[in-house]
């Protein structure tokens, strides 16, 4: 915990971290808020689900593009324009009629205009703190963002049930606009590095570290979303139990991130953290006792944040500074795609085999994530394109090797 105490005392760290997390809070509200609102308008879960699907498509497709724009035309204009479009499109969606075509188009626009805060801020982190504190800052961010997925759905449900389904969308629009302004004021003169020469869009994907992180993030997020389907299928008859189970998994991720996210865990640690996620999921399916199932979900959560933190810091150190925003944009897309895959496949498996089908899907997806670093390592060393960078050896060899792939 000492590393985190020292971190928050550094200039701008607490302000920027808090502002970008606040601005990203609507990410935890979007799906549920739109689902509830569109279902009320159309009385159709099929239409509501389609609108949410288009929301995910918009996020996954647009995030690398807007992240690249932030690194090339500038952080301020990109964030201001995207926040304005995002806020207005949410207000229009809240006031729109029941036309399915219009609602799906608005869902796509809301997703495509999400401000690229995550890619931008993670490109800024190495500028904000000394090199020895960068790992702890990534860990703090990755751990704290669990609050988005705990607070967001609860806020959306309470606002929709207590007042109107319109209110969560209006609130999300307000948070986006206010939060973006807060972040930009706090960032001051910090800017993502701009490329001095033209670089083709998507060229960052030739970096094996980026591809490895995308596969790992996709597997982790997909496994969690599939597990969510399994938990609801197993405990859905008791809404309190299902909600508590999912909250406990997120709490486990918070504890794991605080305890291990700032440490240099290396290849063995990354694989171990992802394996812990898979083991916890399997135990949830094996145990028939509610207490033991809760313990299993907490255990699974323990590995989530440390693994994600290690993947993020690996990418930060593996790509050129001017490519960082686009690289993290691709990671964001991988997570959105992972969420869609996990939910869809687990839904099909649950229809066919009950909650154990979703648990099996979740475990397999987590296993794929755990194997990806080993497969990348077996493919051979990553040779630098512009020279090697001296880094730690031994158990941290993965991060050392990927840094050279620039």
From TrEMBL:
<feature type="transmembrane region" description="Helical">
    <location>
        <begin position="79"/>
        <end position="99"/>
    </location>
</feature>
<keyword id="KW-1133">Transmembrane helix</keyword>
<dbReference type="GO" id="GO:0022857">
    <property type="term" value="F:transmembrane transporter activity"/>
</dbReference>
<feature type="transmembrane region" description="Helical">
    <location>
        <begin position="45"/>
        <end position="67"/>
    </location>
</feature>
<feature type="transmembrane region" description="Helical">
    <location>
        <begin position="293"/>
        <end position="315"/>
    </location>
</feature>
<dbReference type="InterPro" id="IPR011701">
    <property type="entry name" value="MFS"/>
</dbReference>
<feature type="transmembrane region" description="Helical">
    <location>
        <begin position="240"/>
        <end position="260"/>
    </location>
</feature>
<keyword id="KW-0472">Membrane</keyword>
<feature type="transmembrane region" description="Helical">
    <location>
        <begin position="209"/>
        <end position="234"/>
    </location>
</feature>
<keyword id="KW-0812">Transmembrane</keyword>
<feature type="transmembrane region" description="Helical">
    <location>
        <begin position="21"/>
        <end position="39"/>
    </location>
</feature>
<feature type="transmembrane region" description="Helical">
    <location>
        <begin position="169"/>
        <end position="188"/>
    </location>
</feature>
<feature type="transmembrane region" description="Helical">
    <location>
        <begin position="355"/>
        <end position="376"/>
    </location>
</feature>
<dbReference type="Pfam" id="PF07690">
    <property type="entry name" value="MFS_1"/>
</dbReference>
<dbReference type="InterPro" id="IPR036259">
    <property type="entry name" value="MFS_trans_sf"/>
</dbReference>
<feature type="transmembrane region" description="Helical">
    <location>
        <begin position="146"/>
        <end position="163"/>
    </location>
</feature>
<protein>
    <submittedName>
        <fullName>MFS transporter</fullName>
    </submittedName>
</protein>
<feature type="transmembrane region" description="Helical">
    <location>
        <begin position="105"/>
        <end position="125"/>
    </location>
</feature>
<feature type="transmembrane region" description="Helical">
    <location>
        <begin position="267"/>
        <end position="287"/>
    </location>
</feature>
<feature type="transmembrane region" description="Helical">
    <location>
        <begin position="327"/>
        <end position="349"/>
    </location>
</feature>
């Amino acid at each position: 915990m000492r590393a985190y105490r020292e971190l928050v005392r550094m200039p701008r760290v607490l302000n920027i971290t808090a502002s970008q997390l606040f601005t990203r809070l609507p990410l935890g509200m979007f799906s549920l808020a739109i689902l509830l609102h569109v279902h009320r308008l159309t009385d159709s879960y099929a239409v509501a689900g389609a609108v949410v699907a288009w929301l995910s498509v918009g996020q996954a497709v647009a995030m690398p593009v807007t992240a690249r724009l932030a690194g090339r035309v500038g952080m301020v204009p990109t964030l201001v324009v995207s926040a304005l479009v995002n806020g207005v499109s949410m207000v229009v969606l809240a006031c729109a009629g029941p036309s399915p075509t219009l609602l799906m188009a608005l869902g796509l626009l809301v997703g495509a205009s999400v401000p690229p805060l995550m890619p931008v801020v993670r490109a800024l982190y190495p500028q904000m703190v000394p090199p020895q504190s960068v790992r702890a800052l990534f860990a703090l961010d990755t751990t704290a963002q669990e609050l988005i997925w705990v607070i967001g759905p609860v806020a959306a449900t309470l606002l929709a049930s207590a007042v109107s389904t319109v209110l969560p969308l209006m609130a999300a629009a307000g948070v986006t606009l206010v939060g973006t302004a807060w972040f930009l004021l706090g960032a001051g003169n910090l800017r993502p590095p701009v490329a001095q020469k033209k670089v083709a869009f998507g060229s960052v994907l030739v970096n094996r570290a980026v591809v490895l992180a995308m596969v790992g993030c996709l597997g982790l997020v997909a496994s969690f979303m599939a597990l969510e389907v399994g938990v609801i299928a197993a405990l859905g008859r008791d809404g309190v139990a299902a909600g508590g189970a999912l909250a406990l998994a997120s709490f486990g991720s918070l504890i794991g991130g605080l305890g291990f996210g700032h440490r240099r865990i290396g290849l063995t640690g990354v694989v171990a953290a992802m394996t812990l996620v898979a083991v916890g999921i399997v135990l949830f399916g094996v145990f028939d006792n509610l207490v033991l199932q809760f313990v299993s979900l907490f255990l699974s959560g323990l590995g989530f944040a440390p693994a994600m933190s290690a993947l993020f810091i690996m990418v930060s150190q593996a790509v050129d500074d001017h490519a960082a925003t686009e690289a993290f944009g691709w990671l964001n897309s991988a997570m959105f795609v992972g969420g869609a895959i996990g939910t869809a496949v687990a839904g099909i498996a649950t229809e066919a085999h009950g909650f154990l089908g979703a648990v099996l899907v979740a475990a397999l997806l987590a296993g794929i994530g755990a194997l990806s670093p080993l497969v990348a390592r077996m493919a051979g060393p990553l040779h630098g394109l512009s020279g090697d960078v001296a880094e730690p050896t031994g158990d941290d060899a993965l991060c050392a090797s990927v840094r050279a792939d620039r």
